[in-house]
Amino acid sequence: MTICIFMEDSHKKSGKALVVLARKIIGRQKVLPRSLQRGELMDPAKLMVHLANLSNPGKVSKVIVCIDSHSDPGGMRAKTSSAEISLNNSVRFHVKYVIVVHALETWLLQDPKAIRKVLGVTVATQKLQEIGNNCRPDRALMRVCGDFKKSIDDERIAREVDVKLVESQNSSFKEFVDALRDP
Description:
The protein is an alpha/beta fold. It has helices spanning 15-26, 38-42, 44-52, 73-88, 104-108, 112-119, 125-132, 137-144, 150-160, 163-169, 171-181; strands at residues 2-8, 30-36, 60-68, 94-100. It has a 4-stranded parallel β-sheet.
């Protein structure tokens, strides 16, 4: 069976990192990435059109919708919970929204060894946590590691990251892991 991961259009360039992380967690199971505008992900009717157009809808076992919270994870959860209920009442596979607090880089920053290996810089764990707590961790990371290129480095860091370490340190990543592993 296939797991379809919908992500914000802004993740087109770094969306490969989400797929890399997913494959590290679930192994060889097929992952089908899709990018949409944030408004389409938040609107059940608009997302339903895309769900109906999946290439092999009979082979999709679940859909995970990843949305960055940037600054308000609680507010984002409130907005997505009704969409999740509506979609789960309308499709034959399970749909789960995962709020990425604050953004994908927050997950990646949990592993200082991966950051050091990929970016060639040693950043104190406390500083990485500060960057991860920033509403725009990608921009903060660029300031600290001048040559960070989101579209390239997110995927490279994801390949090196210890997913068990990240899962133990970040609740929104644990939610992503649980969504992938849930039957």
